[in-house]
Amino acid sequence: MNCSNGRIRVLYSFPNKLGEDRICYTAWQQVNGLAAAGADLLVFPGALSRPVPPGVKVYPTLARGRLCLPYRLLGALRTVALHDDIVARRIEKMAGQIDIIHTWPLGALETLKTAARLGIPTVLERCNAHTRFAMEAVQKECDRLGVPLPPDHEHAYNAQKLHKEEREYRLATRLLCPSDFVVKTFLDKGFEKEQLARHIYGYDEKVYYRCSERRESKRGLTMLFVGVCAVRKGVHYALEAWLKSPASKEGTFLIAGEFLPAYAEKLEPMLSHPSVRVLGHRNDVPDLMRKSDILVLPSIEEGSALVTSEARASGCVLVVSDAAGAVCQHMKNALVHRVGDVECLTQHITMLHEDRALLERLRAASLQTAPGVTWTSAGTMLLDVYRKTIAAYRAGAPTETSRAREAVGVKS
């Protein structure tokens, strides 16, 4: 660690536009949480879309002022590779100024190689399950449903992308896994437990919070799904279970998100049921969550869906699959079913429909434990992962360095 002030000096490399949607938002919140936790942060994003806390040093690699290299110009894979090359060159002269490097998929290979040669420990963010597992699981489910997966979809099989990510896996000192499900997908592929570090994602408590007004007693449940309506999210399982449950006779199932056209066409008979409302993309998700009883997420594979923490903070009870990556416990503050188990999911929806006391107990427990999964908490946990990674690396640096060198054929 930095001997002058005891703060961990972190180089945070993110190849996309820090602060935009999806993983760009996740990375931005990580930076905020790390800053609040006391990390000494040097951030190399492709570009910066939102301001970061004072004291965080930011040097974009693909932007200058308001001008940014269009990612479509070279294509996404080539653009993030360019970012990776730039960061790798920059750290050549910074070896004594960095304690650990945090990288992201597809924009890390050259950075990880250089770090291994310089003896700097690294972590690689795993915002999803093992990529080979994810591609295979999604394709299998699409084939089962008869829904074609667009060739340019992020989970469509792509040999070039997969090969690069698997090389990155082998080079990183630790893989950052945001859920036990992600850990399992790597263990199942033969990774050592010691290379897998658990951390969490979070929610913004200024945006997601419970309604201060007392919830009205009503006959019907309001069940909510939020996210891209794709096969991997299991919306078909949610619809099937909802329509099998007596909850659909009195309640409402709200679906907030855009559908892939072929998927929507396949599900049209269920989507047209009077209890189902397809809302499309929404900008009022926090309010929808505060007005709903349940958040359903029967994903077949995930990293750790942010909506699960956001929903908890808003007062929704989680009804999720064991692949959703939610930080929760079955029958303590949520209901969890095995992937694809429609009968179990139906039972869980019905339980909450028929037993409102159970619904309220789970909601109260969920709200009580939600402060443990804010972005501030996530930043503190991530900084602790850095400390442990640095300590383990220094204790066995020759072994770690040799493993990384061997992974890319670098001679000692």
What descriptors fit this protein?
alpha/beta, 412 residues, Rossmann fold, globular
Describe this structure in words.
- By secondary structure, the chain is of the alpha/beta class.
- The chain has two domains: 9-202 and 375-408, Glycogen Phosphorylase B (Rossmann fold), CATH 3.40.50; 222-372, Rossmann fold.
- It is built from 16 helices and 15 strands.
- The strands form three sheets. A seven-stranded parallel beta sheet has the order 3-2-1-6-7-8-9, with helices on both faces.
- Helix 13 crosses helix 14.
- The protein is globular.
- The model has no long low-confidence stretch (mean pLDDT 93).
> CATH topology of the largest domain, what is it called?
Rossmann fold
Total domain modules: 2
CATH superfamily of the largest domain, called what? Glycogen Phosphorylase B
Q: Which runs of at least 5 residues are low in confidence (pLDDT < 50)?
A: none
**Biggest sheet overview:** 7 strands, parallel
The count of β-strands is: 15
Strand percentage lies at: 15-25%
Quickly give the CATH architecture of the largest domain: 3-Layer(aba) Sandwich
Rg over C-alpha atoms, rounded to the nearest angstrom = 22 Å
- Determine and state the CATH class of the largest domain: Alpha Beta
